[in-house]
Amino acid sequence: MTPGRPHLPPGGLAAVSSALLAMSRHLEVRDVLKTIVASARDLLDAEYAALGVPDDHGGFAQFVVDGVSDEQWKAIGPLPRQHGILAAMLHGNETERLADVRKDPRFEGWPDAHPDMSDFLGLPIRDGDEVIGALFLANKRCPKVDGGCGFTPADEELLTLLAQHAAIALTNARLYERSRELTIAEERSRLAHELHDAVSQKLFSLRLTAQAATALVDRDPARAKDELHQVAALAAEAADELRAAVVELRPAGLDEDGLVATLRNQVQVMDRAHTAHVVFDSCGVRALPAAQEEAMLRVAQEALHNALRHSGAARVDVVLEKPRDDRARLTVTDDGCGFDPAGVRRAGRHLGLVSMRDRASGVGGTLTVHSEPGKGTTITLEVPGA
Ligand SMILES: Nc1ncnc2c1ncn2[C@@H]1O[C@H](COP(=O)(O)OP(=O)(O)OP(=O)(O)O)[C@@H](O)[C@H]1O
Ligand SMILES: [Mg+2]
Asked: Which cofactor does it need (predicted)?
């Protein structure tokens, strides 16, 4: 064989080229594997072709065959393990071209329903130093010369070329699947935070206001009526927030009224709904960039919500100010029971603190949680861009 002069299969360069194109056209790993195997079998005129992607436990994460019917495949039974000649390709990083695989000393037999195979050509699929799979063929269809291996050195060369492209196609498909998984996971966590921040807080206030109304009905029907109006208003807001979270809009109110007015308004609602005294104060802060305003509002809501739900505070202060020309600062302080922030388990059901940190870092800000059992809690968010 002359180096640099590839031996082309029947169909020539066009057949190789269309096989390579077909491999890289697919985005799903499984489809890429199937195309590789079918192309290899076709181009090298073999009866059987297979590709195995090893897992870390001595088996195969994926194993794709071509030339075997579904019934035959089922009858063969469990997937092969990484031993014998398969292991040699995967771990020894060797190309194997054998006249009769059954006569090789490493051959360990196969299950009853396994088709009979003799001549064999297999090699590792490498991505850099890593072996990501083994690609192999059995039973060359054309007649053998003098009982030797049906697969020629030219076949070996062609399969090597296919394996190199298979590595690229496989790596791309994996990256694609991975990035899609990440996008879905990110989207899910964003929605969970959004729903947690916006809707569950509104519903909590709604429940308290409804309870207040129930308690007042007999004693003071007029005030009960006011509370019920409040219930209706909160329910409408919760519906708006839900819609906003779903379609990725900004929190209802922020666009029309801005951060200061929205926050003042929400603090008033909380003050009315809870026995704790909830107070808002702002000094010097005007409009901030949209993302910062949203982060400020969400953190304020969660901090306020936590103070009212967990601390038993008599008073909660929400303050918006400008410590420097180019920064805005939000503090939410309660005089409640306090807690040990380091003791909160990060995993599990507690999303609030995690969500506040995410919000802060999402806009280049910093979140500080200052709390000690018995000494109340202060949550501070500082963002640039005031
Ligand atoms: N202001 C506070 N005063 C006292 N304890 C608090 C305060 N804020 C948070 N905590 C404690 O920290 C824990 C974690 O708060 P976090 O907001 O992360 O979760 P959560 O409020 O329990 O649940 P959710 O996911 O609904 O927010 C709370 O369960 C509570 O024990
Ligand atoms: Mg919380």
From this structure: [4Fe-4S] cluster
Query: For residue 127, which amino acid is it?
Result: D
Number of domains present in the structure of the chain: 3
Q: Which residue has the tokens 């029947």?
A: 10
Cα of 310 vs centre of ligand 1, distance in Å, is: 6
Alpha-carbon distance 26 to 169, whole Å?
8
Rounded (10°) angle between helices 12-25 and 29-43? 170
Between CA 376 and CA 383, with CA 380 as vertex, the angle to 5 degrees is 175
pLDDT in tens, 234-274: 898 888 777 666 555 456 678 778 899 989 988 887 887 77
150, two tokens: 């049906």
249, 282, 312: which is the final residue of a domain? 249
pLDDT digits 0-9 by tens, 331-347: 999 999 999 998 887 65
Q: What are the angstrom distances between the C-alpha of 206 and each of 158, 226, 235, 313?
A: 70, 13, 7, 20
**Closest ligand to the CA of 339:** 1
User: Do the beta carbons of residue 295 and residue 362 sit within 8 Å?
Assistant: yes
Instruction: Give the range of the structural domain holding residue 229, as residue numbers without chain letter.
Output: 178-249
61 plus 197 within the same structural domain: no
Confidence of residue 1 (pLDDT cuts 50, 70, 90): very low
CB neighbourhood size of 280 (10 A)? 20
The string of pLDDT tens digits covering residues 169-226 is 888 887 877 777 776 677 677 777 877 777 888 888 899 999 999 999 999 999 999 9
Is the domain of 172 the same as that of 231?
A: no
Which of the ligands is closest to the CA of residue 195? 1
Nearest to 282 by CA among 302, 258, 305: 258
374 torsion bin: left (phi>0), alpha (psi -120 to 50), beta (else): left
CATH number where 231 lies: 1.20.5
133 and 63 part of one domain: yes
157 and 306 both lie in a single domain = no
